[in-house]
Amino acid sequence: MKLPLLATASALLVLAASCKPSAGSRHTREADTLLNVSYDPTRELYAEFNAAFAKHWKETTGQAITVNQSHGGSGKQARSVIDGLEADVVTLALAGDIDVLHKEARLLPADWQAQLPDNSSPYTSAIVFVVRKGNPKAVKDWPDLVKDGVEVITPNPKTSGGARWNYLAAWAWAEKQFGGDPAKVKDYITTLFKHVPVLDSGARGATTTFAQRKIGDVFLSWENEAHFIEKEFPGETEIVYPSLSILAEPPVAVVGKNAEKHGSTKLATEYLKYLYTEEGQEIAGRNFYRPRNPQVAAKFAATFPALELVNIRDAFGGWEKAQQVHFADGGTFDQIYVK
Amino acid sequence: MSRRRIIPGFGLSLGFTLAYLGVIILIPLAALFLKAGKLGWSAWVKLLTTPQVVAAAKLSFGASLAAAFVSAVLGLLVAWVLVRYRFPGRRLFDAMVDLPFALPTAVAGITLTEIYSTHGWIGQYLARSAAWLNEHWQPGGRTGDLLAEWAKKGACYSPLGVFIALFFIGLPFVVRTLQPVMEDLPKDVEEASAMLGANRWTVFRRVIFPAILPALITGFTLAFARAVGEYGSVIFISGNLPLKTEILPLLIVNQLEQFKYEAAAVIAASMLIVSFALLFLINLLQRRLNWRAR
Predict the structure, then answer these.
(1) What is the dihedral of CA A170, A174, A175, A181, to 10 degrees?
(2) For a Cys staple, A156 with which of A62, A75, A199, A299, CB 3.0–4.6 Å?
(3) Is the pLDDT of residue A1 over 50?
(4) Which residues of B are less than 8 Å from A10 in CB distance?
(5) Contact between B12 and A10 using a beta-carbon 8 Å cutoff
(6) Same domain? A143 vs A222
(7) Residues 57 to 116 of B: which have CB under 8 A from any A CB?
(8) pTM to 2 decimals?
(9) Percent of residues, chain A, with pLDDT higher than 70
(10) Inside any domain, residue A220
């Protein structure tokens, strides 16, 4: 009976074919490409910045380079890098998503955030309110969000980085308002989420719900995304600045292990440093991210009104703690919905 | 043992089949169960009995069963019309049945949400009529609450929205499994039964229906299996409200967002076990029907 022999042979053949190393894993010795793995709303920012940096690099070193981009939800992007997407640099929505690159896969050192100025966040943003033109529900500040008949749009903090900033901004205001009385803070947050009719999984999805599908009265949003809506849907929305918000610091980092393997450490570091130069800062400002450089920030003063901001380290003890307390299973967000 | 087979290459093709089954189905599934197995039994039970998982399981399996059932009934009707009648545009309709197969699920989800939300083509009328009904009929109780919810949100962001999305993707499975069987139904059997004095209803009930029932059950099963695993189209229309409109695949993604691969694998493996048990039961039922029909 010759069946087993032939069967085994063909099985082995298929297995062998599927195990052959893929052609994509070859690396060029001297790195002339970078892969920047970023989150959703930075598409426009990095399209402009990459072109500027390539030009600058060509002028100073004579080497022509390309920067490839990958965009998606911040948490999902971090997971892709852990699972083997060979990013040279990551530019994500929150420090927590870069921390896990160290914790889960040791792709970069624990103190990555100290390697570049300003906690490795070359630009910042804030959480603001977007309302319909003319502000028909007269929404001015956080207490107005829980008035009768007001519907609030925010993505799901479990799946969206931006939504976590929203949640913490509301929490920070309530904490200040109620003098840290935990029952009252929880009460406010619970009422707030009773006014949320839909929890989209990502920030851009929530933008569509609010701007395109015209659902809800107030949209809690990144400041840069709020300006993006004004540009895409002119004359339909207004931005309202609440009395208190949170300083969102989207961080950047070189993924040390991958960069070493690609021989791109120097290029990747220079790339990120260029974000801090005057030109990099101006590009950030033009794309509605608040520049860190005070001179550049002054130029954009009309776009970015002064705003009272708390930061995550002082108000919440950093991302890791905030994640544990608020967004992990059984955290304060889960408690809202459990009666 | 040495009997020659009519078509050569049995050993070769069996080898390929086994290898592909192994690489594409068995190894990934084994990896899933291995990952899930890293958590002990008590952790499994604790995770699966949290109110969120219980609510999502009810919604996922309940809405999938309902959608598959409605798909089976309406799919039978669609297949009947396409097979039995000749009318202008029939081929176009026939081709359109396949669209949900081809459409990226996210596109389907966004489109359905657009149409069924309070500002959409259908959603606004649904919302208005629900509001009208609630005002004039005033049923109160659970029906009243349901109508109030529809009046406020249209068909979106509620279990109804989940059902609509699952029905949308389920219908073609039923139509496509029924069509060939119905086309092959011999005309003379129907004619004979009519001549023996059966009225139209009896012909359908006693002659046609038993012949197409196995195919109908297959279609139902396919629609159900697809609906349980569906993610892309549902998350847009469901609203993802914890304990109300979260589906199980979304909870898996939530666990992944927290880098809890084991917990995600536990939910996935449990879903797989329940689905497999249900599918197995349906298959058993089908066997019995086939055997009885003979």
Answers:
(1) -140
(2) A199
(3) no
(4) 11-12, 15-16, 19
(5) yes
(6) yes
(7) 110, 113-114
(8) 0.79
(9) 91
(10) yes
Question: pLDDT tens for residues A118-163?
Answer: 999 999 999 999 999 999 999 999 999 999 999 999 998 887 888 9
pLDDT at A160: 81
Q: Are A106 and A146 in a shared domain?
A: no
The whole-number pLDDT of residue B106 equals 87
% of chain B exceeding 90 in pLDDT = 42
Each residue's pLDDT tens digit, B21-34: 889 889 999 999 99
Query: Which of B11, B16, B258 is nearest residue A3 as measured by Cβ atoms?
Result: B11
**Residue A6 lies inside a defined structural domain of this protein:** no
CATH number at residue A243: 3.40.190.10
Chain A interface residues (partner B, CB cutoff 8 A): 1-15, 18, 75-76, 79, 82, 100, 104, 156, 158-159, 196-201, 205, 208, 212-215, 323, 327-329, 334, 336-338
Q: Which amino acid does the sequence have at A97?
A: D
The residue extents of the domains of chain B are: 39-107+156-293, 118-154
Q: What are the b/e assignments for A37-69, b being 16+ CB within 10 Å?
A: bbbbbbeebbeebbeebbebbeeeeeeebebee
Domain range B39-107+156-293, CATH class:
mainly alpha
Cross-chain residue pair A159–B253, CB shorter than 8 Å: yes
* Per-residue pLDDT tens digits for B241-259: 888 899 999 999 888 877 7
**How far apart are the CA of B37 and the nearest CA of chain A, in angstroms?**
20
Kindly determine whether residue B239 and residue A334, on different chains, have CB atoms separated by under 8 Å: no
Which of B257, B260, B267 to probe the A interface (max A CBs under 10 A)? B257
- Spatial contact of B110 and B238, defined as CB atoms under 8 Å apart: no
Domain residues for A49?
A: 29-121+249-299
The single residue listed with the structure tokens 């209803």 is B201
Contact between A193 and A146 under an 8 Å Cβ cutoff? The reply is no
Do residue A10 and residue B16 have CB atoms under 8 angstroms apart?
yes
Indicate the number of domains in chain A: 2
Q: Of A205, A204, A153, A173, whose CA–CA distance to A44 is shortest?
A: A204
